[in-house]
Amino acid sequence: METIFWHKSLPFLMLQEIRLIAIKTLKLTEDLLTSVSKTRPQWARLVSAVDHRIDRALAILRPQAIADHRALLTSLGWPPPLSNLTSSSLDTTKSSEVLNPLFTMQGDLKHQYCENFLALCRLQELQRQRKYRQLEGYNREVALHQPLWAIEELVNPVSVASQRHFSKWIDKPEFIFALVYKITRDYVDSMDELLQPMVDEAMLTGYSCREEWISSMVASLSTYLAKEIFPVYVGQLEEESMTGIKSQARTSWLHLVDLMVSFDKRIKSLVEQSGILLSLQEDGTLRKISSFSVFCDRPDWLDLWAEIELADTLEKLKPEMDEEKNWTKKVQGVVLSNSDDYKCPAVSGSIFRCVSSLIDQCRSLPTVSLRSRFLRLAGIPVLKNFYDCLLLRCQEAEGLTALTDDEALVKVANSINAAHYAEHILKEWSEDVFFLEMGLDQGDEFGESIAEYSGSNIPIEEYGNGIFHEEIIKFEDFRTQWVEKISIVVLRGFDARSRDYLKNRKQWQERSEGWTVSKTLVGALDYLQGKMSVIEENLNKLDFAVIWRSLASGLDRLIFNGILMSNAKFHDDGLERFGYDLDVLFGVFRAWCLRPEGFFPKTSEGLKLLKMEKKQLQGGRTGGGEKWMKENGIRHLSVAEVEKIGKNRVFTK
Questions:
Q1: Contact between 65 and 120 (Cβ < 8 Å)
Q2: Where are the beta strands (DSSP E) in 340-390?
């Protein structure tokens, strides 16, 4: 039978007809083998023997079909001539000068090509069906979806012809991308209109001629980049590192990446014209149509690219971060979800514009593992550098004046604002599936764990929170720490200025002379109001609220322990002045809440006890206990504290 198939004296059309009959016979045999494999598993040796004979037949059928296909393509004038293409014509719209041989073929030649194309597709479907049966119980993905043979035969001669032009454009890679896109675009319609119906007729399921044409063209480009372009740039970088003489290698690399990003976007639009939404596809589809698939096989090049991007970004940011006015000038129009202004410095906007740019570059990579790897190597170090800068600025301010002067407070407040802004933006990003996927990616396809190339100490179970989880925690802790430090500094300043006021126990037994507020408290109140005014003006509202609440709590403890628990005796006049003092203190906080006394629970309830009538107060002192306290609205004091305060009340009227 094999000699009959390929006897050269037979007419071409007869050979085609015999080939189709042979393929049909093999298809029926395969259907029978599939049935026997399921119903008679004990006949495995018989099935294997038949498989061997079919493999021998296919070993003859496929090479001859491909050889005939190539001969037909040559007769058609494929590949179309590229010699009339120039660099100036590459960016024009669809060419009307170069005719598509697939559309212009006619008569017997068209019939022969279509029959041969159909035979190749049926052969591939037969091969796919056999692999599906033979690999039962194994991973079938690789075997079941191979590139479409007939489309590969169209792409290979085009690729060879194109590379003669590529060799002239090593220093002008934009022309290489333009030529590949132009060829891909100019012939893609024939894939849909002429070839796809034949693929469907051959019942070769799961194949789009448009997608196969585009992915094969992109694969040929990626192969050329990997063999001819990237090695040149890598060599230049190695030479630069050895000699210390700067070259254009880094600039050329970044320019090449920009070209790849632009090319992939245009290619993606070509694919989506067929109705395929790539955002919903798995990594495999994106990898097939992305020039960035070159990094899948060369992770060391990805690391090198990330290193170049990081160095370039930090170099751009350095003058921005060194300029002091960028730390005082505010970013306009940046608002929290509850309408509280961030008041973040302008440098924060610069940082996140650069990080966003790196993320956009990262989106071009075809797999989650590559995206995760790139972002951890190029994007996250920018955030770490920003964090280190914030910490250094705060430490410098603390080291010079211990945060006692207004300038130091403003410097720390601006850093807190920047950290809060960073924390909020990163939390927003982390809600995106794009970043959650990278956070869940515990290792990459190259067999390395995340910790090996990120230096991260975060436990693996926490990566589910997103790729920025560690940075969010660091900014949050930084903000909490320095907000607390500001509260402590202001509280200590108030304490130092009110020391005489707190220690003078006799004043509560004396009549005030013309002063509504105690003279020894005025300086402390003035200090408190001044500091809070500076902080409120420069700090975002959320963190300012934390500060004034913390400060109120600290002042409550200070006054309660320093006065009410100090065994000071309160006469009527002294109690009246103490009430005025607290009203003024509460008034400082009334700008930020309706009932400031609620944030001074112990002091307020102590004053309430002192203002009680003698008989009512004695009820609490003579064993009233918790029941009496509950009836009189005393919830934040202990029984012992109530008894002690009650003993210090001296009724003089």
A1: yes
A2: none
